[in-house]
Design brief:
Chains A, B, C: Pfam families: CdAMP_rec. The structure is a homotrimer. The first copy, chain A, has a domain of 74 residues: Alpha-Beta Plaits (2-Layer Sandwich). Chain A is of the alpha+beta class. The longest helix of chain A is centred in the N-terminal third of the chain and has 13 residues. Bound molecules: nickel (II) ion (NI) (3 copies).
């Protein structure tokens, strides 16, 4: 048994939850905030059998990896800013930080 | 020293807190939601000396075990539903998922 | 790699976050409540390289240690209570509970 602690951006949190449910992976979600990341994030606690650790890591990687995305321009864009701020802007979203922790005992009551 | 991580239903959370206080067990509560369970749950972090692990597990088992309970019928029960939905309904409540984690260092500042 | 789990009082939480950012220590914050402590507290999850564990512990110790502080008297102090409740009152604030956990795998996606 391992306890996987995964911190993902809120943006990816619901989708990850759904993929876990489809894959029959039990995950508990804790609302969290990051030191570096300004936006909110979610901490998942996932108890999983040793032989399924790679499967869970793969799910997290596919669902929550850091990637570039085009940001929609603000609605009231001042025409005079056009030259300085070209749109669409490419921004980095997502990203997951994952710890696999050893478990000495696991119980379900 | 061990770090016990216990996920219990909100329904049992206050009672478990009180039993921990009476037993002089220091527990920190985190608000959490589950992947499978629709209802909210609470994640307890409990730092405990090795020789008291069994005692803490026993407390969690006694306070938060999964059990069947009779659900009160809804107030405005439509008479025509009587045949299809017999009351009282027996539902499963409670349940705890518990991980005992090894601790390399423990400090209180 | 280690996962440091540190529970500190809300009072010290923002300051600790800032010191972590200045020291380039990545920390995730979870809102929590304590069993013994009535006031709210914050649980930090800090993933850190083995050789920086002592540095992180030192930061927590310097920022969040338990210490005595003089409490401001209540605004509408009844004169007749003067003899029974001398001001200023000295109260204990702060304090941190810290676990250093082993990590089997660490990934950033
Ligand atoms: Ni195992
Ligand atoms: Ni120990
Ligand atoms: Ni290591």
């Amino acid at each position: 048994m391992k306890l996987i602690t995964a911190i993902v951006q809120d943006k990816d949190s619901n989708r990850l939850s759904n993929v876990f449910i489809d894959a029959n992976v039990r995950a508990t979600k804790l609302s969290s905030t990051g030191g570096f990341l300004k936006s909110g994030n979610t901490t998942f606690l996932i108890g999983i059998e040793d032989e399924r650790v790679d499967e869970v890591l793969q799910i997290i990687k596919e669902t929550s990896s850091s990637r570039e995305q085009f940001m929609a321009p603000p609605v009231n864009l001042d025409v005079s800013m056009d030259a300085q701020v070209p749109f669409p802007l490419e921004v980095q979203v997502g990203g997951a930080t994952v710890f696999v922790l050893p478990v000495e005992q696991f119980h379900q009551f």
